[in-house]
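Chain and backbone:
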Amino acid sequence: MPYLHILRSPFVTRLLLGSWVGRLPPAMAALAIPLALRDAGASYDFVGAAAGAFAIASAVGSPLLGRLVDRIGQTSVLAATAVLSGAGFAAIALAPGRHAIVLAGAVLAGAATPPIEPCLRALWPDLVPARNLESAYALDSSAQELIFVTGPLVVAACIAVASPTSVLWAEALLGVVGVLVVATAAPSRRWRAEARSTHWLGPLRSPGLAILLAGMIGMGFAIGTLNILAVHYAENRHIWGGSPTLLALNSAGALIGALVYGAMKWTLPAPRRALAFAAGLVVGYTLLILLPAPPYMVPLMLATGMFLAPLLTVAFTLVGELAPPGTTTEAFAWLVTLFATGTSLGSAATGAVLQGADEHWAASCGALGVATTLLIVLAGQRKLAAAPVAQPHRPPVADAA
């Protein structure tokens, strides 16, 4: 099993655990901020505005922080953002009834979300041999699925023991702890990006990478659809545990898919693999339009997850291959941002459809999202297989002088 070899490599277990802890706060924020504000008596309008401010600030800040990491390294950026993001959560916890402070705290916490996820993915080529790189990305993807399960559980535990406000303090603490574990590790401290050009587009000037990232929006859109659809489905049918059970099944399927994918040796080129897994997602989400009875919904939720994680793992591989020199962290940050943007759009669209149409039409939103991904990946096969944009020739300093 390649996973045993990967976990035995120096610093891998430490970095995986540290990044897992450090990635919990953003996963918890979608629940923590609304719950804390409602506990303080805030209206739903303001709750939505605060949650939206956090999400938008995070989406905007992630690529900018990724570019900063590529320029000056990981340690200082991770440390500074952990403190700033923690301060944002603390501001909301200290004054949940003061709208201006809450909004400022939400923007700060979101914009300064430590880029621990793209930082770890930029480190993988230095941590494991090239033959194990895809397995490492699969392990990373598996950890991400565990975050989606663990985050809500941590929120529930904090509320059971203390109060909704305590979740915000827990987020600040977890962010600092996770970053300390990662940023003080030798691979993170010594990591430096390759020399890069100053092109304002950064990694987006790579046509293949731009195509891949566009496809991620469709995948995120489908996940956003599923989040809302699961709630509506569970409200109208008897499901043990309700919508969390359905989403947990989907995450479990993704975890299984990632582990199986990473344990196999693939000869099919990465762009073709992406196409195959995208096609599998289209089949799964098309069947989801039928919204079958609960006994049939269980395997369907597992199946849709099983295709999702391998497709994400292939995407990680392609990002590493297609990003121009010196832009890897920013490229991974763009992947996070565009996937999250797609998720927000999918949730909003599905909610709007459910207000005025049948739930089967709402389910078709997910199929539309993954079909869009499939078409983009299909149309971009040649670009996805191309080499990254070359670094422009720069004469030696002595010659230039």
